[in-house]
């Protein structure tokens, strides 16, 4: 087992209803694949099934097992849970998943590549190292001679041989038409010998052990030779007229064409203008007319699709006379004639569905006249149907005629066709589509055979291919008209095999082919699936399963012609194809050939280092990139002989498997036909002269060049040169770079192609110089194709010989100075880190290749090595190529984690975050990438968010990467902002600066890669340091909890100016610093930003309400107790009028215009006492009062100090007495939009209900505080949501505080049990226990909306428009506002659940879920309300009162923080109900939270927004990340 940090883990995210059967996922053995739940599945009971077998079990494709979920945190957390597979066996495996009643709601495949081994020591041969050569087996001669012929492959540097099938061939001698799949071809045994499969196996083993070569061969599942002896006994194995009667019309047409061909051959049609020797267009036209005049009318194929009208009408008449009624179950009461195709395809054999006929043709009565009338209607319809069949057949025949004429034209007239000559029995007019194993007779006699099954079962359909056909359908099955329309390009030597749906449909064939497969897998290391795209998938699946039982690491290749990568993927996925054959010959020019190299493998040069644990990305099929395949046209005929070498070099530089076919390297100037070629391959003789035809050596063709190229290809793959760059130098020259990302060595090959023959094409004389960055160590090889005097090519009768007139001049591993092809023009310094060598070409003639080995400049090489050495403390991936430094800088001598351990969370806020406005306080700002955008943060997260998008796809063209390559600005910015700080942050800055010193001295193209490496290492170390300073809830929590907890670091920091008022000097644990402005000692307490970027700096950073809604989640749950205490006490010091300020403004600019902040503050003190060990001690801590009286100027720090319990008491007492004041400095300077009445603030306790109420219709004292701003729409100075009266959440918060204080007093922790107040001129004592009881008794009576007319508590039944809910307020100046459905009651449910009856609470929560719950937030108003508007646009200024200037801020847009309270309320009350309800609620909660997780993960701000527009749409006016949004979601996870 590998240690976890070295193990490669890929994560596949499952999404509901996502079918990935056409997406390819490739993995190596030894990888771990994890399945995790995407947001659409979180909270659901998902089961993942796979057919990947358990260790030691046999793979059975239909045998699925359920994977077990793992919970890394030990808790059932859907955001982190995963199930996994340890991948140790090659093949194709399927997975699917379902939930609830849906067994399959998504699926896909994974491909695990085989591990190939060679040599006596079983060395691994990576797939990208493969260089393969194809041999036509029949050209190898006797088995005894094979080694001498195969040695050509070994000596040319190949490490894999592909044999065409070695079985007994059919009568055509085509390599792919096999007469007996189980027998070794007797042609390979000399007289007196009888070689068999074990002999071949011994040879294959010898090649593997002694030559380090693997062998693969073809399997042909689609067809068998027409003369296969076993077919006679088993005609059911093909498509015959008994098992496939739909082919009867096509067979009859085929016979008619055969007889026509015989007549043309005899000269019978010469008089009509159709001689046996077809030489002109007019002959083709005559064929067309003969078909329409003589052939089609004679065979009347439409008969097979027609109804016998009179017979059908008679049947119908009998049914009517018998009074038969239609079966309505069958017809469904629908009218319409239904014709049933005769399954046996007899002439006029189709029948009428009598139920449909009776339903459709209904007589007016049972009188004979009406019955006859009805029969007449049916007769008319059937005649119309028969006429339609004539028309349809006419169209089929039109296509058949066109296909035949095109075929004749290709075979007999086309220049590129075979020019078959006169029509004869051997070369008929058109290829026969069916076998006919009987003596020839007349067409009339043939027609009689149709009805003799014992004979017609031997008429078997030939195989072939159909241009442009759907590769996933079988063209011989019923429903396809390929044979009838003559669309098949037919292989007349082979019979298409009919497997049916499974072994039970054709037992003999399945058994026969399984034995064939197992023989192949036993003796060969791999197989090539011949004609894969038209092999039935289920057949190939079953056969490959059988093969892998014999050889688990079976290498499978195939060539597909589907024309679609997605359809290719279906075959690769279902069959587990290891490599798809691709061909350089498909490129029309050198530019396209180079593009194929880039397409088929490797990552870009300078790619970012990927983490070991990362998402599983879709890939393209692994390529086997061949210069030419064995069954395609010869490149010399299509291009030129000179192109063989450079095109081979281009292929060899590809980062995938490569190869060729025997004959290419010897410059054989024609296609070696798989059908007609019977000559032998020459044998190996290293000294063979160029004129030799029977022997091949290093002087032959491009053999010497190919050896060098194959060696280079294998070396590049084995040594990790996985990065690829392709440069089109000019129209004919391609430069290809392979780069090793750990040593940074490159090999650059410059190939001058010769697509056109130089004798007829003028090539450019002047070649531009090349600039190669780094130091050229050597010329790896230089090779030119040159002419020589060795006679001209003459085709040999016995051996497959090549062109002797060309050879290769080659030098290997020489200094640049010894090159005759290139010379160094000079060395220039691009900048301090990059030296560029200018190369000029002297003799890069068409057909030449030169390859350089390039290292970095020695200084840059050392710098990279040192960088890798320091980075290896973070990841072992950097160990290779690392070099320790002799005298390292002091700051780098300590591990970074040690430096980070000294940072506080406030320091980490600076290191990781700080948005633009926060950073500007200190005179800086976030980094702006020219031509792109400004980073979200000045800290590391700003960069990490962008790099996270760049990394998976290696988007090195991104503007950020371009900026890094162009200069050091961003590098300097990253460290210098930290070095200007003091203490541990400065040290981290110095560490980065020291690392960047090395970075600046490496080539610019590598800087993005190493900058990312340094940043990732620093960032992950910083996160570890942050988590170590947090609570066990965070440290032991899920990734989601961790990411939310970082919101605490993001939002809580210390600015250039202190945001909080001074705390008491008597408090311990208050941080101090030397002021950067005054130079004096000052407190530097952490404050909380309300949201980024809008509420992050200056007086708009801190808000009472926002701070205390977020404090529990961001500070108490994360373990930041001392900082939470400081914030509570700082705000306590600002109490005035019994209220906590809304906008803090450092205390001196505070606004006391909100009624709720004081109650949120009290809730936080309660949470602090409950959450923190010895938390009640805070009550005795002193608060420094800034405003000891309502009207005084700010007091000096320490002048008036009170214990916190006294401040709490004052807040309650002031409410009981009644609060009423006018804001100081009231007027436009304080608030330019507010009307004069709005500056009057009032709050009191209703003596009847105990509810805290207040406000008026001109101000808004709760969180829904939008003040109208539009003069045009006339809403200026009018609050959109005044919520005056008793707001439901304030009532809940008040009740919570009272209950808590009563309990505290009982424990002796709070000195007051009530307050003395003046009421109606008398001093009255109000006991908190009594007030608490009063609210408890009044709440549901005044807030519950039952909707029942008889409800005595309902004062305004006419205003009820949603029943079973809780009012939003009680006693509003506009009574209808009380009845609006909003999410605020859920706050009361969480803080004071005792106010609610469980069933009523559940009913209200159900309504809220249906009406208010959005994807991320809660709608702030019932969408059924007439003023609802879900899209917030603060810039809009029009005449719309309800929308202009964002008036609808809280009238529909979906705010995030209330979701936290809604979900917590659901969880609380679900527990009070039955278990099933609770389980369903947990599912809902997880599902809702998964959307927050996804947003958080994808957000460049790494936060949750303030709000969204309706249905979760992005709102550009929202804060991108908001303290209370993050905090309230974190609280839900805590409750879970």
Spans where pLDDT lies below 50 across 5 or more residues = none
Across the major sheet, the strand order is: 12-13-16-22-23-24-27-28
Indicate the radius of gyration in whole angstroms. Answer: 42 Å
* Count of runs of 4 or more consecutive helical residues: 41
Tell me the strand percentage band.
Answer: 15-25%
Please give a structural write-up.
Helix content is 33%, strand content 17%. The strands form 19 sheets. It has an eight-stranded parallel beta barrel with strand order 12-13-16-22-23-24-27-28, surrounded by four helices. The protein has a seven-stranded mixed sheet with strand order 25-31-32-33-39-35-36, covered by helices on one side. Strands 2, 3, 5, 6, 8 and 9 form a six-stranded mixed sheet that branches. The longest helix has 45 residues, at 368-412. The chain is globular.
Summarize the structure in short.
The protein is of the alpha/beta class and 1536 residues long.
What's the helix and strand layout?
Blueprint: E1 9-14, E2 18-20, E3 26-27, E4 32-37, E5 46-50, E6 65-66, E7 82-86, E8 91-99, E9 102-112, E10 116-118, E11 123-125, E12 131-135, H1 146-155, E13 160-163, E14 167-169, E15 178-184, H2 197-210, E16 214-219, E17 223-225, H3 229-233, H4 248-265, H5 281-299, H6 309-321, H7 328-331, E18 339-340, E19 351-352, H8 354-360, H9 368-412, H10 443-449, H11 453-456, E20 462-466, E21 488-496, H12 507-523, E22 526-529, H13 537-550, E23 555-558, H14 565-575, E24 579-583, H15 590-599, E25 603-604, E26 613-615, E27 623-626, H16 635-638, H17 644-652, E28 657-661, E29 683-684, E30 695-696, H18 703-718, E31 723-728, E32 733-739, E33 746-752, E34 770-773, E35 775-787, E36 806-814, E37 822-831, E38 834-841, E39 848-855, H19 858-871, H20 896-900, H21 905-912, H22 916-920, H23 940-953, H24 959-966, H25 969-979, H26 984-999, H27 1007-1028, H28 1032-1035, H29 1039-1051, E40 1052-1053, E41 1072-1074, E42 1081-1083, E43 1087-1088, E44 1091-1092, H30 1104-1116, H31 1121-1132, H32 1157-1171, E45 1182-1184, E46 1201-1203, H33 1204-1217, E47 1219-1222, ...
Parallel strand pairs: 1-4, 1-26, 2-9, 3-9, 12-13, 12-28, 13-16, 16-22, 22-23, 23-24, 24-27, 25-31, 27-28, 29-30
Antiparallel strand pairs: 4-7, 5-6, 5-8, 8-9, 10-11, 14-15, 17-21, 18-19, 20-21, 31-32, 32-33, 33-39, 34-38, 35-36, 35-39, 37-38, 40-43, 41-42, 44-59, 45-46, 47-48, 48-49, 50-55, 51-52, 53-54, 56-57, 57-58
């Amino acid at each position: 087992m590998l240690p976890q940090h070295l193990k490669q883990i890929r994560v596949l995210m499952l999404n509901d209803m996502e079918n990935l059967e056409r997406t390819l996922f490739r993995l190596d053995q030894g990888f771990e694949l994890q399945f995790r739940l995407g947001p659409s599945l979180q909270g659901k009971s998902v089961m993942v099934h796979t057919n990947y077998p358990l260790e030691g079990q046999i793979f059975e494709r239909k045998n699925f097992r359920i994977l077990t979920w793992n919970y890394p945190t030990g808790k059932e957390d859907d955001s982190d849970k995963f199930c996994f597979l340890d991948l140790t066996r090659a093949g194709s495996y399927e997975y699917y998943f379902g939930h609830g009643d849906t067994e399959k709601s998504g699926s896909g495949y994974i491909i695990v590549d085989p591990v190939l081994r060679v040599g006596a020591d079983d060395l691994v041969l990576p797939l990208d190292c493969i260089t393969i050569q194809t041999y036509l087996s029949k050209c190898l001669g006797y088995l005894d001679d094979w080694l001498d012929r195969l040695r050509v492959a070994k000596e040319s540097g190949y490490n894999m041989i592909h044999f065409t099938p070695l079985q007994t061939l059919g009568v055509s001698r085509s390599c792919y038409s096999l007469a007996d799949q189980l027998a070794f071809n007797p042609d390979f045994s000399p007289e007196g010998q009888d070689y068999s499969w074990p002999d071949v196996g011994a040879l294959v083993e010898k090649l593997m052990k002694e030559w380090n070569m693997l062998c693969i061969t073809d399997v042909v599942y689609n067809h068998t030779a027409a003369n296969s002896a076993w077919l006679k006994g088993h005609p059911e194995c093909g498509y015959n007229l008994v098992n496939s009667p739909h082919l009867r019309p096509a067979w009859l047409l085929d016979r008619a064409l055969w007889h026509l061909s015989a007549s043309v051959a005899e000269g019978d049609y010469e008089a009509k203008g159709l001689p046996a020797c077809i030489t002109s267009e007019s002959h083709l036209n005559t064929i067309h007319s003969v078909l329409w005049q003589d052939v089609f009318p004679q065979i009347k194929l439409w008969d097979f699709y027609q109804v016998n009208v009179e017979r059908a009408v008679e049947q119908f008449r009998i049914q009517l006379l018998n009074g038969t009624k239609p079966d309505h179950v069958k017809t469904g009461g629908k009218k319409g004639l239904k014709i049933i195709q005769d399954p046996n395809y007899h002439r006029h054999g189709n029948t009428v569905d009598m139920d449909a006929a009776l339903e459709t043709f209904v007589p007016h009565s049972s009188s004979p006249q009406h019955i006859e009338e009805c029969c007449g209607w049916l007769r008319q319809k059937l005649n119309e149907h028969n006429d339609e069949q004539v028309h349809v057949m006419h169209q089929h025949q039109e296509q058949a005629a066109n296909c035949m004429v095109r075929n004749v034209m290709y075979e007999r007239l086309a220049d590129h066709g075979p020019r078959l000559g006169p029509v004869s029995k051997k070369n008929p007019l058109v290829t026969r589509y069916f076998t006919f194993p009987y003596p020839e007779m007349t067409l009339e006699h043939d027609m009689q055979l149709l009805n003799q099954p014992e004979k017609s079962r031997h008429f078997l359909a030939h195989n072939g291919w159909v241009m442009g056909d759907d590769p996933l359908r079988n063209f011989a099955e019923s429903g396809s008209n390929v044979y009838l329309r003559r669309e098949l390009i037919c292989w007349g030597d082979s019979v298409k095999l009919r497997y049916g749906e499974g072994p039970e449909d054709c037992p003999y064939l399945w058994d026969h082919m399984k034995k064939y497969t197992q023989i192949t897998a036993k003796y060969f290391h791999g197989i090539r699936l011949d004609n894969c795209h038209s092999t039935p998938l289920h057949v190939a699946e079953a056969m490959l399963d059988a093969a892998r039982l014999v050889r688990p690491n079976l290498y499978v290749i195939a060539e597909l012609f589907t024309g679609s990568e997605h359809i290719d993927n279906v075959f690769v996925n279902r069959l587990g194809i290891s490599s798809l054959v691709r061909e350089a010959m498909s490129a029309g020019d050198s530019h396209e050939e180079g593009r194929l190299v880039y397409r088929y493998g490797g990552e870009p040069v300078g790619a970012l280092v990927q983490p070991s644990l990362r998402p599983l990305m879709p890939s393209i099929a692994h390529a086997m990139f061949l210069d030419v395949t064995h069954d395609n046209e010869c490149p010399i005929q299509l291009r030129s002989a000179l192109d063989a070498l450079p095109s081979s070099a281009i292929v060899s530089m590809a980062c995938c498997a490569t190869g060729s076919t025997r004959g290419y390297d010897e410059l054989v100037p024609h296609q070696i036909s798989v059908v007609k070629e019977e000559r032998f391959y020459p044998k190996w003789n290293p000294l063979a002269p160029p004129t030799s035809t029977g022997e091949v050596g290093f002087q032959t063709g491009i053999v010497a060049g190919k050896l060098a190229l194959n060696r280079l290809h294998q070396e590049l793959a084995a040594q990790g040169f996985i990065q690829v760059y392709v440069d089109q130098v000019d129209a004919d020259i391609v430069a290809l770079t392979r780069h090793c990302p750990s040593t940074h060595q490159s090999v650059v090959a410059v190939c001058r192609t010769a697509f056109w023959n130089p004798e007829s094409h003028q090539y450019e004389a002047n070649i531009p110089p090349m600039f190669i960055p780094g130091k050229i160590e050597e010329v790896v090889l230089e090779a030119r194709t040159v002419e020589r005097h060795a006679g001209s090519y003459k085709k040999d009768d016995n051996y497959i010989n090549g062109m002797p007139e060309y050879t290769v001049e080659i030098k290997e591993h020489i200094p640049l100075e010894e090159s005759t092809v290139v010379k160094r023009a000079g060395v220039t310094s691009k900048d301090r880190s990059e030296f560029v060598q200018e190369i000029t070409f002297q003799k890069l003639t068409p057909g030449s290749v030169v390859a350089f080995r390039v290292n970095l400049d020695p200084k840059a090489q050392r710098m990279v090595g040192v960088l890798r050495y320091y980075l290896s403390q973070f990841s072992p991936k950097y160990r290779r190529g690392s070099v320790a430094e002799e005298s390292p800088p002091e700051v780098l001598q300590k591990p970074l984690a040690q430096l980070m351990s000294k940072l506080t969370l406030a320091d980490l806020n600076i290191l990781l975050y700080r948005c633009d406005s926060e950073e500007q306080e200190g005179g800086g700002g976030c980094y702006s990438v020219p031509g792109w955008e400004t980073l979200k943060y000045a800290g590391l997260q700003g960069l990490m968010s962008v790099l996270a998008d760049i990394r998976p796809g290696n988007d090195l063209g991104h503007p950020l990467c371009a900026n890094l390559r162009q200069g050091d600005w961003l590098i300097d910015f990253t460290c210098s902002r930290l070095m200007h700080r003091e203490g541990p942050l400065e040290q981290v800055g110095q560490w980065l600066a020291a690392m960047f010193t090395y970075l600046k001295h490496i080539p610019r193209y590598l800087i993005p890669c190493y900058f990312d490496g340094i940043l990732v290492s620093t960032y992950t170390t910083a996160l570890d340091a942050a988590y170590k300073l947090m609570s066990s809830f965070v440290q032991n929590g899920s990734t989601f909890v961790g990411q939310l907890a970082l919101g605490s670091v993001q939002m809580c920091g210390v600015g250039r100016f202190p945001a909080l008022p001074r705390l008491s000097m008597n408090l311990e644990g208050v941080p101090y610093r030397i002021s950067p402005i005054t130079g004096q000692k000052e407190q530097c307490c952490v404050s909380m930003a309300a949201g980024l970027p809008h509420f992050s700096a200056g007086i708009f950073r801190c808000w009472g309400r926002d701070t205390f809604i977020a404090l529990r989640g961001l500070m108490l749950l994360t373990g930041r107790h001392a900082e939470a205490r400081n914030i509570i006490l700082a705000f306590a010091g600002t109490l005035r009028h019994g209220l906590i300020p809304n906008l803090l403004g450092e205390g001196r600019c505070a606004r006391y215009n909100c009624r709720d902040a004081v109650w949120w503050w009290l809730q936080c003190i309660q949470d602090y006492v409950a959450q923190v060990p010895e938390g009640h001690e805070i009550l005795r801590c002193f608060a420094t009062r800034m405003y000891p009286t309502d009207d005084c100027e700010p007091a000096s720090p320490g002048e008036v100090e009170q214990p916190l319990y006294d401040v709490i008491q004052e807040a309650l007492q002031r409410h009981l007495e009644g609060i009423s004041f006018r804001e100081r400095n009231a007027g436009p300077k304080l608030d330019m939009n507010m009307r004069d009445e709005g500056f009057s603030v009032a709050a009191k306790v209703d003596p009847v209900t105990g509810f805290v109420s207040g406000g008026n219709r001109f101000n808004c004292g709760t969180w829904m505080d939008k003040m109208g701003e539009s003069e045009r729409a006339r809403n200026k100075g009018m609050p959109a949501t005044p919520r005056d009266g008793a707001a439901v959440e304030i009532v809940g918060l008040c009740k919570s505080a009272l209950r808590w204080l009563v309990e505290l007093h009982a424990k002796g922790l709070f000195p007051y049990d009530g307050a003395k107040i003046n009421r109606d001129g008398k001093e009255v004592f109000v006991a908190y226990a009594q007030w608490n009881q009063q609210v408890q008794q009044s709440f549901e009576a005044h807030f519950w909306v039952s909707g029942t007319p008889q409800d005595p508590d309902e004062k305004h039944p006419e205003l009820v428009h949603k029943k079973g809910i809780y009012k939003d307020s009680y006693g509003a100046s506009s009574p209808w506002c009380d009845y609006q459905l909003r999410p605020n009651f859920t706050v009361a449910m969480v803080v004071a659940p005792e106010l609610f009856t469980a069933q009523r609470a559940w009913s209200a929560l159900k309504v809220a879920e249906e009406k208010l719950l959005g994807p991320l937030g809660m709608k702030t108003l019932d969408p059924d309300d007439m003023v609802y508007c879900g899209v917030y646009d603060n810039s809009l200024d029009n005449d719309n009162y309800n929308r202009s200037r964002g008036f609808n801020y809280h009238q529909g847009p979906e705010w995030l923080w209330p979701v936290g309270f809604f979900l917590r309320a659901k969880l609380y009350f679900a527990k009070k109900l039955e278990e099933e309800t609770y389980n369903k609620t947990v599912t809902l909660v997880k599902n809702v939270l998964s959307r927050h997780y996804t947003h958080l993960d994808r957000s460049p701000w790494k936060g949750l927004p303030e709000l969204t527009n309706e249905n979760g749409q992005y709102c550009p006016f929202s804060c991108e990340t908001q303290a209370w949004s993050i905090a309230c979601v974190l609280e839900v996870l805590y409750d879970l």
